Amino acid sequence: MRKILLLACLLFTAFLFADGVLPNGTGTETDPYLIGSYDNLKWISSNCDGFNGFVGTHFLQTVDIDASESHD
Fold it and tell me: What's the CA gap between 32 and 22, in Å, rounded?
């Protein structure tokens, strides 16, 4: 029971501190995540678990994204 409670707390905390905006789509080949904003890019970076965090996940950039605010 303690392990389940600890896992639930960790997942809730990760959700609270996650950055960015979940893009439209489900990440499959036929329904890729549609990346159309800097906030979508931030969501990817804050939800990726290392280099292989999104292996098998599909993305489609839909517009040119101004990421100049990430300069600093």
Answer: 12
Rounded CA-CA distance 33/29 in Å is 9
| Tens digit of each residue's pLDDT (9 = 90 or more) over 14-59 | 444 458 999 999 999 999 999 999 999 999 988 877 667 788 899 9
Dist. CA 37–CA 61, nearest whole Å: 9
Integer-rounded Cα Rg, in Å, for the chain is 15
Spatial separation of the C-alpha atoms in residues 34 and 40, rounded to whole Å: 8
Quick check: helix, strand or coil at residue 17?
Answer: helix
Q: What is the pTM of this model?
A: 0.67
Region of residue 40 (phi > 0: left; psi between -120 and 50: alpha; otherwise: beta): alpha
Query: DSSP letters of 47-72?
Result: H--STTTTTT--EEE-S----GGG--
